[in-house]
Amino acid sequence: MEELRKAHPGRVPILLANGVPFLWEPQDVELVRTKHNLCGLLSGTLPLIPQQNVFLGLPLRLLPEEVVLLLRRKAAILIDEKQAYVSPNDESKVEYLKQKEQLVLEQKEEQRKQQEDHRQRVEAALVGEAGDVKALERRRARQVAKALQDTESLDNKPEANEQEDALLKMPYLHHTPNTSAEIPGYIPTLGGSPSKLQNAYLTLQSAQAAGIWTYPSTLAERARCAVFESLHSDGYFLSTGLRFGGDFVVYPGDPLRYHSHYTATVLSTPKQPMAAFHVIASGRLGTAVKKSHLICQANTLTLDDDVALERRLAGLDDALDSDQTKPWGNVEYWSLAWAGFGT
């Protein structure tokens, strides 16, 4: 992973797990928030917090529109999690077994030391209580004699292996390491590595060709991307709007500092009908949650899905020049408020 970061500085690795994009590193979450004004949704657990219905931790789950924007800005690398875990070869299997055996020996040695310390404390307590040192010495002699008898019953082995064999006979002690470590066998790669896997992608074009990221693939999804990028380019922060009855919730600044001002609903084309009761419901809902309801009409450039796929494979969706090219089309807005109803 570090080699991938060095090869492409400024790009954050987005790991796709069953098609869901995640950021796992705190520095990546900080970068996309401070530099790209993208928030995502924290979806991980916090070990020291018993009720986790408000505050959550890593990983950060990104919206599909956020992934598209980061790729178009050349600020992300898509990594296919499924292909990143490669099958070990014979050499790595042998190395793994050696490391496993070494860890077992270290754990058993640690257990032996703990047992010896415990025995010494018990003997010291017995001497202090009974004051009979000779009885304690006779007990220790019997233990030594029994140990020698057990040793003689075993096959003769080289002296170097005697301690190792004794440790292997001891009961296994589970040990949980207190530090993090790299996952062995995890190789995100752009090619040229021993795994020969193409599991990291820099553009929408390459991800579409590989079949790991096809968003946006429908007219409605392209309209959502158009609205998201239009509002984002105007300095707004966006998040999912399900809680407030829309497609997006729109903030005038960082959500840690501001309340949302709008709930946005996306219309895919200028000809998409909108029922009168939906207009009324949107206005009343916006007023009830103290937000203006924003109707976003996307004038999507490409209506046909097949033509849109051809554009994607040709790399036209990845274009992002100094004029902030928007391959999805332009957007028009109307805001609704229920006058005289709580205003």
UniProtKB/TrEMBL annotation:
Residue span, TSEN34 N-terminal domain: 12-81
Active site annotation, chain numbering: 251, 259, 291
Keyword annotations: Coiled coil, Lyase, tRNA processing
Pfam families documented for this protein: tRNA_int_endo, TSEN34_N
Lyase among keywords: yes
GO cellular component, one term: tRNA-intron endonuclease complex
The protein's enzyme class: lyase
One Gene Ontology MF term: nucleic acid binding
Coiled-coil positions: 97-125
Domain tRNA intron endonuclease catalytic: 224-296
GO terms for biological process, alphabetical: tRNA-type intron splice site recognition and cleavage
EC number: 4.6.1.16
Family indicated by similarity: Belongs to the tRNA-intron endonuclease family.
Stated role: Constitutes one of the two catalytic subunit of the tRNA-splicing endonuclease complex, a complex responsible for identification and cleavage of the splice sites in pre-tRNA. It cleaves pre-tRNA at the 5'- and 3'-splice sites to release the intron. The products are an intron and two tRNA half-molecules bearing 2',3'-cyclic phosphate and 5'-OH termini. There are no conserved sequences at the splice sites, but the intron is invariably located at the same site in the gene, placing the splice sites an invariant distance from the constant structural features of the tRNA body.
PANTHER family: TRNA-SPLICING ENDONUCLEASE SUBUNIT SEN34, TRNA-SPLICING ENDONUCLEASE SUBUNIT SEN34-RELATED
Record-given protein name: tRNA-splicing endonuclease subunit Sen34
Organism name: Malassezia psittaci
Lineage start: Eukaryota, Fungi, Dikarya, Basidiomycota, Ustilaginomycotina
GN (gene name): SEN34
